[in-house]
Structures are given as C-alpha cells and as structure tokens.
C-alpha cells in the first residue's frame, strides 16, 4: 500500500498509538490528527490504543489540554483500563503506588487504599516518581525492598522510554525490567500483551455493532517493542511511524527493514516518518 487513504478502505478499524504518533508531550501533530479524522469520515473507527496508565477519561482530559481535536478519534482504550482487572485480582484492596501524582486517575472508581510497602499486597507501577530527573538506577533500593517483601508489581505501562519534545524519558516498563532482573514478579498490562488488544476489539465491536476480523484491523505506532511486536503477536497488520522513539536520522524504509529483521511475523503495510493521510 502506498498511502493511508488506500489502507482506510481495507482496514476499517485503526488502533492508533498516542504518544509519538499524534503528539510528543508538547506539540500536537496536525497531519496525524487529520489522517485519523479522514479515516472516520471514510466510515472507519479510529481507536486510540495507548500504554498510558491513566483511565480513558484521564487520557481524554490530557488530549483536550494538549489541543488534540476530539473528532480525531472514535474512542480510547488504555493500559490503565486493563490494569483495573489486575488490581482487582492481586491488590486485595491495598496497593503501594509507584509513580507520579499525574497518574492518579487510574484509581477513579476503584475500591483501593494507597498504603506503604509494609501494608501493601501489591505495587502498582505507573512510572517513575520524577521522570524528568530520575532513571531506573535511582530505584535499586526500593525494588530490593519490594522483592524482599514478595510483592508483585502490576506494571500499568509496558513502555520503557518515551520521547518528550527532544528528550527521552524512562517509563514504567523500564522499572518492570529492573524488577524482573532481580527476580521480582511482574504482571503486565498494555501493549504488546494480548488483553489490551482483546479489549480494543471488544470496544470497537460495541461501537460498530459487529465484530471485526483481524484482517480488518490496522495497528499504527512507533514503538518496536510495544506497538509493532504487539501487532505481530496478535496477527494484525501495522503502519510504522519512524519519527517517534526509534533512533534519529533513520529513514522510514531503514526503520522498516530493521523491524522486519527483528520480527519476521510482522506485516508492515506502510512506513512513514510521521502519520500522514497521503
């Protein structure tokens, strides 16, 4: 396929990543929003599928604050939504929150008490406390304490890094990696894991009044370990956005070749530097 316009007809359900595809934490990408709006006008569903640990309502608020037009998407499914079920199963009402205060919307509507490590049944990791200044190396002692207490970590965002403006910041997935390396138990929500895709297709079916075959679904994203691996594992086609977290200066076709070598099962229909209808 040579353009999103052609893919829109073949794949009526788009599962589009957010950070790195439609904004970078500072700037909204107008061409990407336009492409999603055009897909909706063409009769399709533009479902934003994000590893944000916030609820869909929390992400919607964030998008409004950034200036993303609400007509750019049909609905939202987040890693935070999937996390709710893991919390019900493992936290038993008491959880230690490892993450910034901006992620507090994940607790909305939940019967959970935020407690210290000595009272917690699980740790909910939504990110670093201060991702602008910290790295996973700052959490060696805390993770060791969690491991000594036998606490499972529920990772609400499998992303390891994200580009914010011109900077790369660490995410919850990086802490989950560190915890696994010392033998800690990690329970993952979000891409590339199956539950978030199942929820996305179930949500889309509710909007459309019918179920979608996997051949009708298109994943759009910039993350090799999340968006692209998730698409490959779930058996859906993908569009690669090379201008997000992949190394700078890499052309779309070079990025595509790199990912296809790493993920032989991936079906990349199109590679672009930035999401654009044409």
List the topology elements.
Layout: H1 4-10, E1 13-16, H2 30-41, E2 45-50, H3 56-66, E3 75-78, H4 79-90, E4 94-98, E5 113-114, E6 122-125, H5 140-148, E7 153-155, E8 161-164, E9 167-170, H6 172-181, E10 186-188, H7 194-208, E11 217-221, H8 224-234, E12 237-241, H9 252-262, E13 268-272
Parallel strand pairs: 1-2, 1-11, 2-3, 4-5, 4-6, 6-7, 7-10, 11-12, 12-13
Antiparallel strand pairs: 8-9
Quick rundown:
By secondary structure, the protein is of the alpha/beta class.
The CATH superfamily of the largest domain is known as HAD superfamily/HAD-like
- Structural shape: globular
CA distance, first residue to last residue: 11 Å
Largest pleated sheet = 6 strands, parallel
Mean of the pLDDT scores? 93
Strand order of the largest sheet: 3-2-1-11-12-13
Task: State the CATH architecture of the largest domain.
Answer: 3-Layer(aba) Sandwich
What is the H-and-E element order?
HEHEHEHEEEHEEEHEHEHEHE
* CATH class descriptor of the largest domain: Alpha Beta
Question: How many beta strands in the DSSP annotation?
Answer: 13
Q: Please tell me how large the radius of gyration is.
A: 18 Å
Low-confidence stretches: none
Number of helices, counting only DSSP H or I runs of 4 residues or more: 9
Provide the CATH topology of the largest domain: Rossmann fold
Helix content: 25-40%
Structural class estimated from helices and strands: alpha/beta
How much of the sequence is in beta strands?
15-25%
Q: Work out the count of structural domains.
A: 2
């Amino acid at each position: 396929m040579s353009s999103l316009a052609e893919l829109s007809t073949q794949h009526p359900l788009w599962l589009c990543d957010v950070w790195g595809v439609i904004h970078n934490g500072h700037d909204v990408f107008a061409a990407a929003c336009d492409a999603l709006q055009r897909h909706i006008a063409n009769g399709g569903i533009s479902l934003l599928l994000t590893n944000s640990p916030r609820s869909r309502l929390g992400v919607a608020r964030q998008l409004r604050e950034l200036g993303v037009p609400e007509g750019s998407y049909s609905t939202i499914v987040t890693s935070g939504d999937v996390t709710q079920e893991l919390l019900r199963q493992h936290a038993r009402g008491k959880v230690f929150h490892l993450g910034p205060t901006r992620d507090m919307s994940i607790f909305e509507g939940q019967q959970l008490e935020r407690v210290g490590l000595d009272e917690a049944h699980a740790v909910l990791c939504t990110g670093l406390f201060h991702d602008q200044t910290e790295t996973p190396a700052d959490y060696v002692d805390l993770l060791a304490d969690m491991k000594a207490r036998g606490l499972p970590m529920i990772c609400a965002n499998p992303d390891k890094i994200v580009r914010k403006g011109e900077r790369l910041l660490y995410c919850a997935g990086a802490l989950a990696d560190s915890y696994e390396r010392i033998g800690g138990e990690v329970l993952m929500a979000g891409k590339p894991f199956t539950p978030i895709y199942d929820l996305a297709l179930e949500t889309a079916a509710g909007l459309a009044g019918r179920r979608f075959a996997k051949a009708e679904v298109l994943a759009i994203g910039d993350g090799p370990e999340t968006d692209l691996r998730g698409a490959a594992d779930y058996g859906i086609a993908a569009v690669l956005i090379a201008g997000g977290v992949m190394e700078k200066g890499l052309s779309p076709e070079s990025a595509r070749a790199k990912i296809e070598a790493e993920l032989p099962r991936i079906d990349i229909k199109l590679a672009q530097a930035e999401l654009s209808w044409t």
